[in-house]
Amino acid sequence: MKLRFEASVEEFRQEFLHWLADNRPTAEEMAADPAVSSAHCPDWAKRWTKRLFDAGWLVPGWPPERGGRNAGAHETLVYLEEMSRSGVPRTTNPQGLGIIVPSLLDYGTPDQIKRYAMPLLHGEITACLGMSEPDAGSDLANLKTRAVRDGDTFVLNGQKVWTSGANYADFCFLFCRTDPDVPKHKGISIILLPMDTPGVTVRPLNEIVHPQHPDLNEVFLTDVVVPAANLVGKLNDGWAMANGSLAHERGMVWLMSVIDMEMGMQQMLELAPSILEALPEQERAVAADDVVRCYIESHAVRCLGYRGFARLVKGGSAPEQALMKLFASASRQRLARVAAEMRGPDALESKPQRSRRIGTLEDYFGIFGSTISAGSSEIQRNIIAERVLGLPRG
Amino acid sequence: MDLELSDDQQMLRDNIRTVLTGACPPSLVRAVHEGTSDYAELWRQVVDLGWPALGIREEAGGVGLGFVEVALLAEELGRAAAPGPLLATISQFVPVLEEFDCIDLLAEVAEGRRSGSLAVAEGSSWGLHSISTIAEVTADGTRITGRKDAVLAGSQVDSFAVVARDRTSGQLGVYLVERSAATVIPTGVLEPTLGLADVVFDAAPAVVIAAADVEEALERVLQQATTAMTLHIVGACRRVFELTLDYAKIRVQYDRVIGSFQALKHRFADMYLMVEKANALGYFAAVAIAEDDPRRAEASHMAKATAGECQRLLVEDGLQLHGGIGYTWENDLHFWLKRAKAGELLCGSSLHHRSQLAAALGLISEVNV
Hints:
heterodimer, A: Butyryl-Coa Dehydrogenase, subunit A, domain 1, 4-stranded antiparallel β-sheet, B: 15% strand, globular, AcylCoA_DH/oxidase_NM_dom_sf (chain B), flavin adenine dinucleotide binding (chain B), flavoprotein (chain B), FAD (chain B), acyl-CoA dehydrogenase activity (chain B)
């Protein structure tokens, strides 16, 4: 156990910080043309992604030809820390960079990597992840979107929902059923679907915060024809790959949640003293205790996350990764609630798009989705109980 | 940065656990609870193994390991609900002797010839500001008069490191008093294995360890005592968790094991998260102390506050999910329920540590206790 990184890791951090200071997009650039969905890549973001790629700072752990510099795990960790703290998004297409490209590099053909993965790494295109359906949310294996082989093509019919960024993405990493006659986990495949293919209809779902900038969508597929060469990996092997994809997502998301919690807590500590000062004495101690509990939780999130990371680096299994989703999302939600309720009616004021600010109802409702999406807290508890603690499926 | 135990530390933990499984089975804990045996044989074994010397510097005959290793031992003692003076000795007495460079006393502890505990709390306060126990220099040497409460292993240790105020200067100091020179009133009726006691000193002869300027050093000692107690609670809570989980896997109702009901699964997931959380914060504090990092004070407050949340959930859910069987004396569960609960009351409650944090964060004015 030790609290500090090796000197070489700290040097790596400094090297990145220097590069970042010289190359980051300006606040004005970003504000003038904000990214409004998780697959929207404005011009400044395209240039930024390309700069990151060329300098080997897009995915430092990968080789230079894929936008990296063969960095080790600890180096990647400090890179992500600084990237998350910088106020500049590492990517405006997190699922593309974090899940879809790694999956394509693992399972895709050379041609798929050339046509889909590399352009995404160059900031030229974006992608969305087609998983959930009306009857396949938590129970993903129940998905019904059909892909029927017809000569050199697949014909797709069905519906996806909650598809982040489908309204801006160039292609979809689509999970569909290719064999309806086997147990449900065994008949799922992954197909690359260009979103401009005839028969694809995207209908944005306006959310309870910022309805003018929807990110979630319904995607309707009616007799959509794609080349058979767009099949990713083996036919009917999609479930195993799905678990691989989600592992990629978890691997990246936990640190984001640590830093997000840390930054939210910083804002809370800036906000709290003046609010508490204005409270009557007897209310102050009670409110202070709420703040302290949030403070402790932000440290606990950090400790659990970094310990899980240490275990992963040593090659062990890390139940922390399963706990992190459950804990970090709930903690961040609690922080938002405590801050907003403590602040009083001022919390009702609205703030500009995406400038999440602790102490507003906008922040509270904006962050709330984290306990629902990507496997709800209830599903996380089931996973922990069954896979980590060995309780029987009920 | 590495918040996981090293291979050596894991090996040490495994060794400790193996030894305690043999030397401190639930039957021994039961016998001590029921007054049919005591901790003497266990103490002899741990002395043979050199455990009291774990954190003592090598020049005093110790093993010279750091505070993370001491914390490991404290956690395993909680997991075993071990009776006897070891926890107090390694996490309270030795830190005092180390802070004040008491080489001769350290050597005695390392050899297993002396156990000890910190006598600091008065009333329910573990703070240094309100101490009223008096030290007085007389013709016959230094004498201590006053009353200390909730002394860990107070009825089991050989000696006390007493925090007292000089009658003349008003300065706090630390004094060594032999147990035989004090009146020990056992208080742990519900948890007799910890040897908790109130200790009354009536002009008790004392040896000066340090007569002035002890506050900073004592804060550091209290951080160690607090963090060790945190992990001790975590160890007890983890045992409660394991016992409850095992039970949920075998208890059948409505033709299925009760652990297959989602209402219980979710509670187990939450209990597991809570134990892991308290454990992670506990070791963060331990490593901050081991490295003498500036965050050590804050980290020990956070750790003990979280241990408080942890024992609350685990004691309640552990007992509740066991149902009636966990409410019986014959079942072993209560040893750990009581150990975890007792830990909450020692070294400052979670409420105390949260209020200290609130003051440190500037949310409320300084709490001087």
